[in-house]
Design goal:
The chain has 808 residues and is mainly beta. The protein has 9 helices and 55 strands.
């Protein structure tokens, strides 16, 4: 049992990509999954509308965060007045019991601190600024202390600071996550606890006895939040129900009985009781993804939206119209605006994101957009996918109703040359603060110049999301085709594209509480995709640069090697934000070396309903289909290897005028190769691979467009690819290093090999296969797995046959 627990821990740490190239932007927190989830779900969110509302003890005011600052709204006049003016972003406000002070979180895009604002003197005092995440401050019921969450000791724990002595004390020390402390009048705390593989609960902590009891439990409650009424017993909380969330009530002294307060529009967030206990205030995004301030009586009934009639910025502001052009034509662009203090400026409508690689807040303009901002210096940065170099323009914004123009130029027009870009792996909704429809991402796709998008249905542990969207189609550019991600954590995650039906089950295998003994190889859903006329492959497969190092099998999905050898896998995701391109390409090369023409793919794995997430297409795959662009033609080109993947540079590779996916047929002993690189970012070098070995390298310090040429010896069999590599990451990139690689061009025939190369590759893959078999036996323990072992045995026999037949 001890060995199994060790294996289980290793599996969670590795197969959930904790060792992937993108690790964390904010200080690392222990005891939680990948930081993409922690930063996406546990940190506060920027929106142009009100978030995290907190009613005043005076009953006629509400404080909230909006546009990255704090505002107080007078409920009678419906005027919101700005009360913070920092360069950082201010979130999560809470009042002192006497209404004279507010405590809140300040976010500088790298770390958070906790600040106290005295409303009478306007003085700000930094209470907590550890070299760790500090979150969720709230006053004690007597106003003498502030409770908060901090990762100062490694994991997120509950803490208390005395406002007189400023002495800090830690209250919990579990290895999981404890945050959102809400004090009771008896001196105890209600808090949110997340432990293990997303076992979430709202708990009641007895500080004297140091015991904690769960009030309610669920799996993967990404937007859970709550408030305690002044009656000291009634808890209102946001809780998931399928795709949606609800506001519910429970009595903390009798927690077994729960009552629905409202579903609202399906995503009511951050509920807070009024001090008289009669109202519950909350925020919720509307159709334009703008957060609105709402309230409902404690007895239920109709939800009331509290409109803001006037925004009082506390300084002179103006309206600025921005017109963006690409090749002299008005086009959608990705945009970032900061004021003279470095604070982000965002539009009044639409989604806003903050990407973790560079910490830049961005949004999309359809070509003309209007923003309101304080007068002064504004810096506007714009880009059109990977088609242009970023343009930065600084303006002196002095008068209202000003217009400025942004001009961008393509470095390569992919569509004109018959190439189309796709993101083959991302998610519309995955536990964030919005409920997106496929139409909501059309602007994103146009701005990123993504021609075909494959949002994948996914699951949150025990909840299957968005099944009702599966048959959605948008067949004009940009094309949207809904795919599916099956998520056997143990065997590896798959993307199924172009299928007519959803595959069931979506989840199975060890580390799930249900279907945990299911003896089902990933080959089954992959073959299902083939029968449906679609394709399937592995996503984010390798999280280290050298998967062939000792114990490298831990970093490779358990089912991948057998499935690829048996040619059940159509595509392998070389590019993904949560895996390593170099390591994945190294494994891919060995599949090519045994003669399997496994096609490359790429996808961002962006969760687009999150605030802290990258852009759709941050990693993407270009393909050159025959005829007009359709889903069927695109997937056929992808499967045939008429493609390249990239997180920035775009490349066109030919050998003796043969393109990627072709087989070179020539009597020459040497061949001329040509590589055109069109890159919006700098890169260090290009590399030419023949049968997995680098045969030529060209150095470069430039971006934009450049052509490289050279000659290679033509082997009797095998393949050749081209790679672009760079050690830096700059916009429009959002990955940790620059990478692009072409699909192979084959020598003589597709799937040809060289005997020694084939033997060496087969031996490497055989070691990984043996590692997978051992992992299966350990993880399933006493449960028999004849299907999995038979599938692996067939792959083993195939490798052994290769080794035997290719001996010289």
């Amino acid at each position: 049992m001890k060995n199994f627990k060790i294996l289980f821990t290793l599996f969670l740490l590795i197969n959930f990509s904790l060792n992937a190239q993108w690790k964390n932007r904010y200080p690392k927190v222990n005891g939680y999954g990948h930081h993409v989830y922690l930063e996406g779900y546990e940190l506060p969110v920027l929106n142009s509308g009100p978030t995290d509302p907190a009613p005043s003890p005076l009953n006629n005011q509400v404080v909230f965060s909006a546009k990255g600052w704090l505002w107080i709204m007078n409920l009678e006049t419906q005027e919101a007045k700005r009360i913070t003016f920092s360069s950082g972003m201010d979130f999560s406000p809470n009042w002192s019991p006497d209404g004279s002070k507010i405590v809140f979180v300040r976010d500088n895009s790298m770390d958070t601190s906790i600040v106290l604002l005295d409303l009478n003197t306007k003085k700000e005092t930094v209470l907590v600024n550890s070299e760790a995440l500090d979150l969720n401050p709230i006053f004690s019921t007597n106003g003498k202390d502030v409770y908060y969450a901090s990762a100062k000791n490694g994991s997120l724990d509950l803490w208390k600071i005395n406002l007189t002595s400023l002495e800090k004390s830690v209250l919990t020390n579990d290895n999981g996550l404890e945050r959102l402390p809400v004090p009771t009048k008896e001196g105890n705390l209600v808090y949110l606890r997340k432990n293990g593989f997303s076992y979430d609960s709202i708990e009641l902590l007895d500080l004297d006895k140091e015991t904690s009891n769960a009030l309610i439990e669920e799996n993967f409650t990404s937007q859970a939040s709550f408030s305690l009424s002044n009656d000291d017993k009634t808890l209102v909380y946001t809780w998931p129900n399928g795709d949606d969330y609800e506001l519910k009530l429970l009595n903390i002294t009798v927690p077994k009985s729960k009552m629905l307060l409202t579903k609202s529009k399906g995503l009511p967030l951050s509920p807070k009781f009024s001090f008289d206990g009669k109202w519950v205030y909350f925020s919720e995004n509307n159709k334009n993804e703008v957060s609105e301030l709402k309230r409902i009586t404690i007895y239920g009934g109709k939800v009331e939206t509290l409109d803001i009639k006037k925004w009082n910025w506390g300084t002179v502001t103006g309206k600025l119209k921005i017109i963006s052009r690409v090749d002299e034509k008005i086009e959608a662009v990705r945009m970032n605006i900061i004021d003279q203090n470095g604070h982000p400026i965002i539009p009044n409508t639409g989604l806003v994101h903050s990407e973790g690689q560079n910490g830049i807040v961005f949004f999309y303009s359809p070509g003309e957009i209007e923003i309101e901002a304080p007068l002064g210096t504004l810096t506007i940065t714009s880009v059109h996918g990977f088609s242009t170099v970023k343009t930065t323009k600084t303006i002196i914004f002095e008068t209202d109703n000003t217009t400025t123009e942004i001009d961008l130029n393509r470095i390569w027009n992919a569509k004109k040359d018959g190439w189309y870009a796709a993101d083959a792996h991302f998610h519309l909704n995955y536990g964030g603060t919005s409920q997106l429809e496929p139409e909501d991402i059309l602007l994103d796709l146009k701005a990123e110049e993504i021609d075909i998008a494959f949002p994948l249905l996914a699951n949150l542990g025990n909840r299957f999301l968005e099944e009702d969207l599966f048959n959605f189609k948008h067949e004009s550019l940009p094309i949207v085709s809904i795919g599916q991600e099956t998520r056997s954590h143990f065997l590896g995650h798959l993307n199924l594209l172009g299928t007519k039906e959803v595959y069931w089950p979506w989840v199975w295998g060890p580390y799930y509480d249900i279907y945990d003994k299911e003896d089902r190889p990933n080959a089954e859903p992959l073959r299902f995709a083939h029968k449906q006329g679609g394709i399937g492959g592995y996503v984010h497969p390798v999280s280290i640069k050298n998967p062939f190092q000792e114990n490298g099998g831990y970093y490779i999905p358990t089912g991948l090697v057998a499935d690829a050898i048996m040619e059940d896998v159509d595509i392998l995701e070389l590019g993904c934000l949560w895996s390593d391109e170099i390591g994945t390409a190294a494994l891919w090369h060995e599949f090519l070396n045994i003669g399997i023409p496994l096609a490359l793919s790429a996808g961002s794995d962006v969760m687009n309903d999150l605030y802290r997430t990258m852009a759709i297409g941050a990693t993407r795959v270009y393909a050159k289909p025959e005829g007009e662009l359709t889903v069927v033609n695109y997937l056929e080109a992808l499967k045939k290897g008429k493609s390249f993947m990239t997180n920035g540079p775009q490349l066109l590779f030919t050998v003796e005028n043969f393109e990627v996916g072709d087989a070179i047929k020539t009597k020459k002993s040497k061949a001329n190769w040509k590589l055109e690189v069109h890159s919006p970012v700098p890169y260090d070098k290009v590399e030419i691979f023949v049968n997995g070995d680098i045969v030529d390298t060209k150095k470069s310090k430039n971006g934009t467009s450049k052509t490289y040429t050279g000659k290679i010896e033509i082997p009797k069999g095998g393949w050749i690819t081209a790679r672009v590599y760079g050690s830096k990451s700059v916009w429009p990139m959002m990955d940790s290093y620059t990478f692009a690689e072409s699909s192979p061009i084959w020598f003589n025939s597709i799937g040809s090999t060289m005997p020694n190369t084939k033997i060496n590759a087969a031996k490497k893959l055989l070691e990984l296969l043996e590692f997978s078999e051992k992992t299966i036996k350990q993880s399933y323990r006493k449960s028999k797995t004849p299907n999995l072992m038979e599938h692996s045995a067939k792959a083993r026999a195939k490798l052994m046959d290769m080794i035997s037949k290719n001996k010289i």
